[in-house]
Amino acid sequence: MTLHTIILGSETDFAGWRDAARALALANVPPEHITWTVKGRAAQLFEPTSLPPADPDRTFTVPAAFVDLASIAILNRNPERFARLYRLLWRLRDTPRLIEDATDPDVAILQKFAREVRRDEHKMHAFVRFRELGRGKEARFVAWFEPEHHIVELAAPFFARRFADMPWSILTPERCVHWDGRDTVFTEGAAKSDSPSSDPLEDIWRSYYANIFNPARLKIKAMQAEMPKKYWRNLPEASLIDPLIANAARTTQAMIEREAPVPRPSRQRKEEPIMASPAHIKSESLAALRAEAADCRACHLWKDATQTVFGEGPRHAPIMLVGEQPGDKEDLAGKPFVGPAGQVLNRALDEAGIDRDKVYVTNAVKHFKFVPRGKIRLHQKPNTPEIKACRPWYERELAAVKPALVVAMGATAAQSVFGKITPIGKNRGHLIDLDEAKALVTVHPSYLLRLPDADAKEREYANFVKDLKLAASFLHKLKAA
Description:
Layout: E1 4-8, H1 14-26, E2 34-38, H2 64-73, H3 81-92, H4 105-127, E3 131-133, E4 140-144, H5 152-162, E5 168-171, E6 175-179, E7 184-188, H6 202-212, H7 220-226, H8 238-246, H9 248-257, H10 286-293, E8 319-323, H11 328-333, H12 340-352, E9 360-363, E10 370-373, E11 376-379, H13 384-401, E12 405-409, H14 411-418, H15 424-427, E13 432-433, E14 438-442, H16 445-450, H17 454-480
Parallel strand pairs: 1-2, 4-5, 8-9, 8-12, 12-14
Antiparallel strand pairs: 3-4, 5-6, 6-7, 10-11, 13-14
Helix pairs in contact: 2-4, 3-4, 4-5, 12-17, 13-14
């Protein structure tokens, strides 16, 4: 009986595990004859075993679901994960559909490992708090986090998308990740003392947190289930939580005993449509419209924005894509959809078979609406008066381009296109008649960037591509006719 010792390059060496596991399985080495470990974990009693030579005439396959499960479960900190993965791989050779049996002990434990990793990834997304280090051009945003599992490289893309326009570092005891605005770089672990302990904006955040805290809705068990106490020490609002909880009962009773104010008369009124048919708007040159829009003062948003971000694309494009408003990158560049959301849109259009250079891309609102937070400009959703003020530009663009199909991406775009509040969920997935074109409703690409759960992100991205494929199919039928 030959015993094999496999030493992987790191705790997250999935490629190394996969290559070794494949070679061992092809050589018919049973799970009980293998010891799995990681380089540098502890002193080794035996030298690493050379892998059996590959036989080009022998092969086997496993379900894609196993590969997906293994790539996540291997990030769990449990030292048995390598052996359990190999044992399931060994069994899948003869019973591929075993991966579908959630009651099987090997499948169940590995799915549990994967869930723990995903939960830890979600906590990292939710509880990382950046603090500013340095000023001016030397400023950098640094955060400290202590993950339970080996998730830093898994979680990093979320932060690169979410905070694409600022330099940041996330330090952890095992692995650190750094972003310079273009690339992520991973380095060895750090000590908590390497991260800043405070930030000038934290007093403002604590004041805000204390004011929005509602003692009448306090559910301590639910709060601690979502935000366990071990994360509190890294949150600036943590110092307020215990006092707010302690005073919750007294504050709630005072709210009950306080005399109820006389309700104000309702100011709600029926939303008036903002539709004005482009059929009565004469066709104009896009260049002339763009030049005129550069001096637009129809609402207050021009005061803080860098510039008007007008639409872009061919004069007679068959598709007009309408988004919400320019973001930070678009505001600086003066072009629509050039930031992180634009990258998602480009990829989705490519997968749907639509050439972006042949579509007209614009926004319902032409100026960037934001709230400043230090060096960061936080996006704010446009309100109805701002959408109404900007709608004539959309109408004139529509009359100039005369697209066969208008794709409204997001609720703000849908409100502008249809002239009234139009829910996305109830209206997506089918074509809707406009006066002189068809319309299609879908989500905004930035919605996909905000989803914290990887599975939900993948699912919603696929739905977004599906909507765009419906647009591509409509155009194909139009050309054929």
